[in-house]
C-alpha cells in the first residue's frame, strides 16, 4: 500500500497520537548515577572538565544520597580518589579506604540505595594504569589478585554490585569465585564487558585523577574499530558469571550495544561517559544547543538501541525534569 493511502504522518498528528504510539521511553528507574568521592576533601569541589559535577567528601555522601533518593534515584556507582597512591594501588583494598567508608555512609542513610562500586586500580596506582605493572605492561594475572581483594573489601563494607572496569582477562570468573568463597554469593557482578580504549574518558581522568603517567590503555581496553571482538568479550563475561553487562562509551557505540543485545540474555546497559557529558554540557553552556532536549534525546537513543539501564552523570537532572 502506497501514498496517498499510506500516510505516515497520521500517527504524528498531535501529542496524544505521538504519545500512545511511542515505541520507547526513558525509564527513570533505570538510571544509575556515577559519583566521585575524594579522601581528605573538606568541601565539595567542582570538576573543571565536567561543569555541574562535583567531587564529594565522604561526609557529604549521606546527605547527597538522601537527596538523590528523594528524587527517585535507585542506584549509584562509586569512584574513589585515595589520599595515597602507590605502585600496587594498596589503598584500593584498604577496609578504611575512601570507598568502604562511602559505602557505609550511603547504607546508613539510604539502606536500600543500590551501591555499585567501580573495581579497578587506576585511581589507586601512582602510574595510573589499571593493574600491576611488569615492566611497562600490565600483568593480567597479578592484577586479578588485587581486583579480588578490592572486591571483597567493597562487599564487606556493604556493596551490592561489583563493577570491574579494568578489562583484564578472566576477572569476572576470578571475582565471582573470590566473592563466593568469602560468603558474598549475593553480591552481583556488573561487568564493563565491552569497554573501548576511548578518548571520551578524558574528563573523567581529571575527576578521578587517574590519567596514566606513561603510555595508554590500548593493551587492555578494546579497539574502537572492533565489533566481533566486542561480542566475544560479552560472551566470555556471560560465561564467566557476570550478572549484567555494559557497553562503554554509549552514544558512539550504539551499533555495538544493539548487537550485544541480540546475544545477551542478562541485563545489558550502557555508560554515557564523561566526554559525552562534557560535550553536551559545554555546548549547552555556550547556548549552542538546548541541554534538556539534547540530554533526553541522547538517553532515549541509548534506550532505543537496547540499553536495559543507563549510567549517566545527568541522572539527577533527568529525574528532576521528569518530576516537574
Ligand atoms: C576506570 C574507569 C574509567 C571510566 C570508568 N571507569 C576511566 C578509564 O578507563 O580510563 C571512565 C568513565 C567516564 O569517562 O565517565 N578504569
Order of helices and strands: HEEEHEHEEEHEHEHHEHEHHEH
CATH superfamily: Aldolase class I
Residue stretches low in confidence (pLDDT < 50, at least 5 long) are none
Shape: globular
Give the ligands present.
ligand PBG
Question: Any idea what the radius of gyration is?
Answer: 20 Å
CATH classification, class level: Alpha Beta
Task: Provide the helix percentage.
Answer: 25-40%
Structural class: alpha/beta
Q: Return the average pLDDT rounded to an integer.
A: 97
Number of strands: 12
Whole-number count of domains: 1
- Distance between the terminal alpha carbons, to the nearest Å? 42 Å
Arrangement of strands in the largest sheet:
1-4-5-8-9-10-11-12
Strand content: 15-25%
Largest sheet: 8 strands, parallel, barrel
Number of helices: 11
CATH arch. level architecture:
Alpha-Beta Barrel
Q: If you consult CATH, what is the topology?
A: TIM Barrel
What does this structure look like?
The chain is globular, with a radius of gyration of 20 Å. It is built from 11 helices and 12 strands. Strands 1-4-5-8-9-10-11-12 form an 8-stranded parallel β-barrel, surrounded by 7 helices. It has a two-stranded antiparallel ribbon with strand order 6-7. By secondary structure, the chain is of the alpha/beta class. It starts with 14 loop residues before the first helix and ends with a helix. The model has no long low-confidence stretch (mean pLDDT 97).
